[in-house]
Amino acid sequence: MVETVKEYLLNKQYKELKAFLNDANEADIAECLNDLDQEELAIVFRLLNKDEAADIFARMDDDTQERMVEILSDKEVSSIISKMYVDDAADLIEELPANLVTKVLKNTSIEKRKQINEILKYPEDSAGSIMTTEYIALDEDDTVKDAFDNIRKTGLKKETVYTAYIIDKQRHLLGVTTVKDLMMEDYSCSIKNVMEENVITVNTTDDQEAVAKMFDKYDFLALPVIDSENRLVGIVTVDDALDVLSEESEEDFEKMAAMAPSEDEYLKESVWDQYKNRIVWLLVLMLSSIVTGKIISSYENAFAAVPILVSFIPMIMDTGGNCGSQASTMIIRALATDEISPKDIFKVWWKEIRIALLVGATLAIVNGGRIALQYNNIVLGTVIGLTLIFTAVLAKSLGCILPILAKQLKLDPAYMASPMITTMVDACSLVIFFNVALALINI
Amino acid sequence: MVETVKEYLLNKQYKELKAFLNDANEADIAECLNDLDQEELAIVFRLLNKDEAADIFARMDDDTQERMVEILSDKEVSSIISKMYVDDAADLIEELPANLVTKVLKNTSIEKRKQINEILKYPEDSAGSIMTTEYIALDEDDTVKDAFDNIRKTGLKKETVYTAYIIDKQRHLLGVTTVKDLMMEDYSCSIKNVMEENVITVNTTDDQEAVAKMFDKYDFLALPVIDSENRLVGIVTVDDALDVLSEESEEDFEKMAAMAPSEDEYLKESVWDQYKNRIVWLLVLMLSSIVTGKIISSYENAFAAVPILVSFIPMIMDTGGNCGSQASTMIIRALATDEISPKDIFKVWWKEIRIALLVGATLAIVNGGRIALQYNNIVLGTVIGLTLIFTAVLAKSLGCILPILAKQLKLDPAYMASPMITTMVDACSLVIFFNVALALINI
């Protein structure tokens, strides 16, 4: 699409471009604008349908939004902000540099500014920070007809109109209803008789990931957010839940590969920022593996006497690391998706021990057997075989216990992933290896 | 919740239990039923509100569904299936063992059986396999009033009523409209004038992950699925997209930890199945690291002359592996989320080289410096420092190039993750290490 737009621009076919943009989807236009330079951006944005411009603006990348705010006149900023949903406006304010925040806020109505501040006051990653304060509110004495009139009148400005909340004068949440339910009822029916009173709610301070998982479980289109006094303060919509789920799993992928999580796209994040995200864990893990080196040094006599032992070090370290990573990945994910909780620790451990014995026995037979045959040395094969079995049990034990302990200690289990587990297992597996070797081989 | 239910059961307070279940949410009840034994299940399920029973059944785990089908009479099965959405019914058929499939199908109406087969014929993981064939279809000559009447009449049986599709006699897709848009229009207005003609569609054979990502991008509640002749065959709803996104990222986590992906929950999957998912990659990687062992053997003279060199092997292997995993994780995820594509390979590589130089230099200064001081041996410190820099560049290069190459070759980049990269980097980093050592130290 961006090629087509650039071609229209090059040929100055603005009328055709306008018609083309008019037919295109907002999300596609936003994606295309991200790839234009400052000058092109200014032209294209002004050709957009005024009603769609705010929606397209809300869908642009953070830095394209920033570039747009720089270009636009005060009047244009004001028009866009007034049409933006308040949660999108709050996101914008959060990402902009200070000088542009000023430009945006001075072009925002007092009412909207108040709503934006309402959202900004909640901690990052809380339900409050991703909610919108625009929703359909009904009175319990309304009729179905009142409800439809209300939705028709105010609906265009709300992010979702399909779920409506029934509140009292103090904004306490009394019930919930949906347009689908309302459509099945008589116009004269009272909302009180239609509404569902057992409302599933989230609290403003709930973690956004927990909120997103509730959408997955309950298949709702929106969830009401209440404060500590059961007053409705906003709603979270399913599209926000989708964003949160993607964002949180990206974060976990990065943490599990020993990186500080970042929110930027790979190509957009600078080399320096990527360096900073990666170096801390690399240093920590590098310095930790000095311990493993010390262990090797202390068995210098063993490998001086039987030099071939050294050549098995990488195989034992790698296999131990892989066994541990498999277990820790399974457990970290099972904790993240609430399939297991810390109280399951012994059940999980017992399971991993049995898996480790099967895995270890298979590896021992294959590799121990190979070594016994290749070197015509049954003792050496036995040393490797036993080491693999002990290492598998140890690696899978650490791999399942450490994430659960982290969770219990309110740390993020995702950090107990492959890199950390591998470093620990390395040291232990070499101790096992050299001790088995010393016990079975006459050195 | 399950404790409360069990207590009611124990005290035989069935009336109270029925009232309790009546007030509870369907998803919560389904979760609770998963934890009951066969006998409890039979009692509780029969206490459920008949209208909600099918919905609760659809939300239960695969194996609870299986246990239910075993318990229920033909008549009960028939009643549930008739109320289930056709995509949920198709999922059920897919997961049940053959004897129970027969029981279900003989209690399913011919019409529904036809619809189920329509879905089952599409390949697993395709848009066709996750769609439902129940949606609101309108004629372009309908008025807004006709549309509402249609929704009111048929809506209860449709998974979503908020998006309606306008089709011609041959089921070609002409346009789309939403209840929100319809509510803003006059009753007498023709659908033709309200509908959006530029419809974003997916094809039956499109990958489910790509479809799920479209929901994230466009914020739709439903997407129409068309066949190769632009005929509407079904719709995918946003709740399915949420399921697919979770499922696909779990799969990637498992693949990236060198496991065959599984769909079962951790605690429910047998030890034997877990063993099978894990052992293949462990064997492959273990046998690959024999190469690394061979490399070490070939430098036997070097570490016989300078035994301290051996003690650096774990540190170099681990650091190389971690550097490589960081890069590969970033790239695998960036490929999965379409932030980069194979054509970006040189841009990405150049970026990783610069990051690697910064990272390598830092590691070299810290650890090379430490070694130079500790052993009072500048040459040894230099060997370690240079090895770390070269290893970082090599590891990050492999970590970014291999996943991109895999994608280019239509393989799954997720397998080019930590375990695979670590095994490759191990061998290379040791070659670097011993060669730098041989070049700088007089052996």
Strand residue percentage of chain A: 5-15%
For the biggest β-sheet of chain A, the strand order reads 1-2-3
Integer-rounded radius of gyration of chain A: 30 Å
Largest sheet of chain A: 3 strands, mixed
Oligomeric state: homodimer
Give the overall form of chain A. Answer: elongated
**Structure classification of chain A:** mainly alpha
Total count of strands of chain A: 6
Mean pLDDT of chain A: 90
Distance separating the two termini of chain A: 72 Å
Order of helices and strands of chain A: HHHHHHHHHHHEHEEHHEHEEHHHHHHH
Tally of contiguous helical segments of chain A:
22
pLDDT < 50 runs, ≥5 residues of chain A: none
**Helical amount of chain A:** 55-70%
> Most extensive interface, residues per chain?
A-B, 109 and 109 residues
Your description of this structure?
The structure is a homodimer of 443-residue chains. Chain A is built from 22 helices and 6 strands. Chain A has helices at 2-10, 14-23, 26-33, 38-47, 50-59, 62-71, 74-83, 86-95, 98-106, 110-120, 127-130, 144-154, 179-183, 191-194, 208-218, 238-256, 271-298, 300-305, 313-336, 345-374, 378-408, 418-440; strands spanning 136-138, 163-167, 173-178, 202-203, 222-226, 232-237. Chain A is mainly alpha-helical and 443 residues long. Chain A has a 3-stranded mixed beta sheet. In chain A, strands 4-5-6 form a 3-stranded mixed beta sheet. The longest helix of chain A is centred in the last third of the chain and has 31 residues, at 378-408. In chain A, α5 (50-59) crosses α7 and α15 (208-218) crosses α16. Chain A is elongated. The N and C termini of chain A lie far apart (72 Å). Helix content of chain A is 66%, strand content 6%. Chains A and B meet through α12, α13, α15, α16 and α17 of A and α12, α13, α15, α16 and α17 of B.
